[in-house]
Amino acid sequence: MADSSNEQVGEGVPASQKGSWTSFLKSIASFSGDLSSLTAPPFILSPISLTEFPAYWCERPELFAAIAAAVTEEDRSIRVLKWFISTLKGQYTSRNEKLGSEKKPLNPVLGELFYGHWPDINGRGQTNLVVEQVSHHPPITAYYIENPTKGIQLQGHSAQKTSFSGGSIIVKQIGHAVLTVDLPNGGKEEFLITLPRLRIDGLWYGSPYIELSETSYIQSSSGWLSTIEYKGKGYFSGKSHTFKAVLSAPHSSAAAHTYEGLWHMTSKNISTGELFTDVTVPKEEVTVSPVEQMSEWESRRLWRYVAKGIRDGDFETASREKGKIENEQRQRRRDEQAAGAKWELKHFEHIESDPIYERLGKLFKTTPPTEDAYIYKHNYTPLSAALANQPA
Q1: Which end of the chain, N or C, is surrounded by fewer C-beta atoms within 10 Å?
Q2: Predicted pLDDT of residue 391
Q3: CB 176, CB 195: distance < 8 Å
Q4: pLDDT per residue as tens digits for the range 13-22
C-alpha cells in the first residue's frame, strides 16, 4: 500500500493506539482466510453489535409502508427500489458520520437477540423487528420485519466473508432477503433482494470507510427486475457512493426506468430529472425497551459495558469486558459439546434451500442458484402490542 499523498500512515489513529493499529494492518496483510476472526484494536470497534444492523432496513418506515399503496406491479417495483436505495446510507455510512470513520461492529454471540419497532405515525402502521444471531462461526444474523397494518413482511439473513486485496478489505455479503406484500385481491407479490459487495478503504490512514461494489438485484414475482450497479469514485460521476439502477419489465432487457445518483444523498430519474431518493433528511431510529428491562441475551444489555467503554474512550475497560463475554461463550460451547447438546434457535428455523430464492432467482439466473434460509416462527409479541393487550 503505497502512500501517494501527503497524509501520514495512521493519521486517524489515537496516539496511544498507533502500535496496535500497525500490528493490526500487518495481521490483515499476512492473513489468509476469513478476516472476521481477527481481533481488531478497541479504538476501531463500534459500540454496536452486528445484531442491530437489520434495523437499518427500516429507518425510513414511511417508505416501507408506502409500498402497500402501489396500484400496479410496475409502481410497486419502483417503490420497492426507492425504499431499498434509501436503506443504504444507514446500513453503510451512518457510522462514518457518527464516529468519524467506519468501525468494526461487535461480533455477536450465538443466540444474541434484538427487538425493536417504529410506531404508527400518520396512519403508516407500526413496523416491528425481530433479530437473532443464528450462527457464530460463521456469524449469521437472521431478521424479520413486518408492518401488519400494511401487509408487508421482510425476512432474511446475512453473513460476511472478508478478505484483503490491494490495500482494501473486501466483504462478500452472504444471504438474501425476501419482501412479501399482501395484495388487495388476497394474493401476494414477492421480491427477492440480493446484497451488494463491500470494499473497506482508508485503512492505511486509520479512517476506514465503505464503498459498495458490483451489482445487486431486486426480482419481483411479477417479473419486474431492478438491476443496481454500484461504483466508487471516478466512474459514473467521479464521486463516491455512486449507483445506477435499471428497472426492466417482465420478459424484457430494455430499461423501462433508469435512476442514477449518490445512494448516501440524492438520486433522480435520468429521463425526467425527477428526484427519486433523498436521504439527506434525518432518519428514524428504532424504538427499543429500556436496557434494564431487557433480557440478558438482548444485544444492548449484553454489550452495555463494552459499548460504554468504547464511547468513553476507555479502551482498556472495553477490551476487558469484551473478553469476559467471549470467554463465557467459548465455555458455553465447550459445555454443550461435552454434553452432546445442540444450541436451539429461539425465533427462526433453518432450511437448506429457500424455495422463493430458487424460484425468483431463476428469472435472472442468480448465482448461486440455491441458498439456505432462516424462517421466522412468529413467536414474539412486540412490546406495544403486549401492552395494548393488558387489562386496564
Answers
A1: C
A2: 47
A3: yes
A4: 555 555 555 6
Per-residue confidence band for 5, with pLDDT thresholds at 50, 70 and 90: very low
Alpha-carbon span 339 to 342, nearest angstrom? 9
336 CB neighbour count, 10 Å cutoff: 13
Of all helices (H) and strands (E), which one includes residue 79? helix 73-92
Please, is 123 exposed, middle or buried when counting C-beta atoms within 10 Å of its C-beta (0-12, 13-18, 19+)?
A: exposed
pLDDT, tens digit, for every residue of 90-139? 888 765 455 455 677 888 999 999 999 999 999 999 999 999 999 988 88
Q: Is the pLDDT of residue 346 over 90?
A: yes
C-alpha cell at 289: 425497551
**Structural domain span for residue 354:** 1-281+289-392
pTM: 0.88
Phi and psi for 370 in degrees, rounded to 5?
-130, 155
- The C-alpha atoms of residue 306 and residue 99 are separated, in whole angstroms, by 16
Contact 62, 147 (CB under 8 A): no
> How high is the pLDDT of residue 9?
42
Would you say 165 and 151 are in contact if contact means Cβ atoms under 8 Å apart? no
Query: Is the separation of the CB atoms in 311 and 42 below 8 Å?
Result: no
Q: Measured between alpha carbons, how far is 166 from 223 in angstroms, rounded to an integer?
A: 38
CATH at residue 233: 2.40.160.120
Cα–Cα distance, 115 to 51 (Å, whole number): 10
**pLDDT tens figures, 361-386:** 999 999 999 999 999 999 999 866 55
The DSSP code for 72 is: S
Structurally, how many domains does the chain consist of?
Answer: 1
Task: Say if CB 104 and CB 45 are below 8 A apart.
Answer: yes
Quote the CA–CA distance of 169 and 164 in Å, as a whole number.
5
